[in-house]
Amino acid sequence: MAVRDLDVDSVAADLGECRQRGLEWLDRHNRYQKPIAAVTLQNLAAEYMASKRLSATGRTAMIKLLLRDGIVGFERQGNVSEASLIRDLFFGESTTGAIKPPGELLKRAQRKVGDSDSRFRDRRASIMRSFAEFLITFAATATIDDKAGSDTSEQQQLVTTGFVADSGHFIQMLADADSVTIVGMTNWHLTEMLEEALSRKRSGAHSSATWDSLDIVFLDEPLLRAVNDEREQVQDSEEALRQRKLQAAWAQSSVENFLKRNQPKHWGMYRYPYIPALTGALLEIGNRKIVHLLIRNPQLSRADHLYIELQDEKNRLSKIFQSILSFSERLKLIVPVGFPDAKNIFQCTSAKMHVDVLKDGSKAIGWLPMVLVITSRRRDAQAQPVMQLRTQENSVRELSRLSHLAGHVLQNDRKRPGDSSALSVRTSFGLAEDTPRAAAQRIVQAAIGDDLVSSIQPVATGRYMYPDKEHLFFFVFRLDLPDGIHVRRQAEMHSFPLPELLDIRANQVLRSAARLCRVTEVSQRTWLAAAEVISLNLSLHDYDDLGKSLVGLAGRNPAELTRMAMGIEQHITERAGQSWVPGGRDIQITGLAGWQYRAFFSTLMTQYREIGVSGANELMAAVQEDDGKRTAASRLEAMYEDEDLMLSMPIEV
Known about the structure:
Layout: H1 8-21, H2 39-52, E1 54-55, H3 59-76, H4 80-90, H5 102-113, H6 117-140, E2 156-157, E3 160-163, H7 167-176, E4 179-183, H8 190-201, E5 213-219, H9 237-262, E6 267-272, E7 280-285, E8 288-295, E9 306-311, H10 316-326, E10 329-330, E11 334-340, E12 346-353, E13 367-379, E14 382-389, E15 401-403, E16 405-408, E17 428-429, H11 434-448, E18 457-464, E19 471-480, E20 493-495, H12 498-517, H13 524-540, H14 544-551, H15 558-569, E21 579-580, E22 587-588, E23 591-592, H16 594-598, H17 600-611, H18 616-625, H19 627-640, H20 643-647
Helix pairs in contact: 1-6, 2-3, 2-6, 3-4, 3-6, 4-5, 4-6, 7-8, 8-9, 9-11, 12-13, 12-15, 13-14, 13-19, 17-18, 18-19
């Protein structure tokens, strides 16, 4: 459609929507707002840019340029007061910098005119339509300015600026990009933006879309002390540094989880050992390279920092990004692989990349060393377990389950103190040695931000066997969180009373029982073995009759099994903690994480009793005094240690 054929009402409607949202926030996308379409106005701006042979880094920049130039042209035609009102509504006092929020612009414009609400609304609508009509002709008759010079083959460069608070614009740029390089200090908040950008990229028919490359550069930890940002306003440099380290560690962990969930080999994280010449992003969209630079002001909050965006036609800024990347060390999270011996000493035999382990159905063999830190908090002389809700931000697997702090032992944890050589690592380690303690300290510090190594106590080891991938060997520690300790909300660490954990586990057992009843393509022997494990767990939660009925269904026809599954599901209730709302979010907790589910009545309850968790002593006594429960707990402990039996399980038990 030619510019002259554009509908005035459509242009006016788009102008109204853009004015109401604000030019800086046209691409905002969250649970409350979607990007403003403004298709007609965007097409008009694109035609104007082509006629003027200008380049811009996105539709917002194009629309801004059309409106700025259009207002000047509108004014030259004698519409001085009308042009002034349009300028006040869209730009306010801004000339080339960031624009104030639309509500503030509207109030200032009305005060300047002096109209009542209804009169100002009518005036605004009339002038907006007149301006829309003018814009159509203005764009159609646009030519290259004489001041552009005789060489009109080179496009003029347009620089876009805005506030970092307008994350929707950057997210949309990420979604549009084919390749991305990001250079940041801590990269705090980056994961949530990457998640949203990938979701937008994969919307509609592009469900498998991805980035050709995604390189994310973090500042090396020792250099965080040299950063000057808004945290310094607390006038406590050590506290500011602690916050930076915590945010950097958490960002690296969450970005690593994001990369692992999406699995592409051509994405990576890096660590830069120098203060970077610039921070921001290089986005390649088609044959264009767009540079998004951050302008930091330590006197302002992050949301009030500015960004500058421009097209890098001569690759000058792109070369700086490439240089930073070339001098950066790739962050390769490497995990040792081996086996635990009879004395529970882990023997390392090889190593793998973190992204390559624990893949469902991989049939990979070997054991991976893990650490688990049983955390608790005392309130009014009563201790309660502190569990982490596993989400996409802090975990890759077992999402929506509860777990004490847990994670892999990494290659770096094995290094001998004072020796940075990758070759000088321990080939074996036990619970009391430095390697698992270093891993526990790292995991606690990443979640909590404080070095509590002296309070972390080694208590036990445990084994978890999978039927389709590597097994896990746990080094278990205990940590009673000090009074007043601050845990970041993103860590999802929350106190749970013991009765609530019992209810959550009971529902988890019932779901396993119902799931087994719908498994028919396995041998009767395999099905019966799984039914026995689940039956023993049901007995521990006072479902003895249900457990006996389940075992008795071995070899029955699918119809009977389906009826049994439906009957079991009727016992699953919305108990305390099942629908739980942290920070106003409705999240369904589906159970306890793997080994903690299996070791709940053995290792976990033993530690809870020693910690002084309310009700733990009574629960342990009830299990020991009941012959059936005591036998069930003992039998389960042995069955969970039987590798051949666990390898045969058709579902998680």
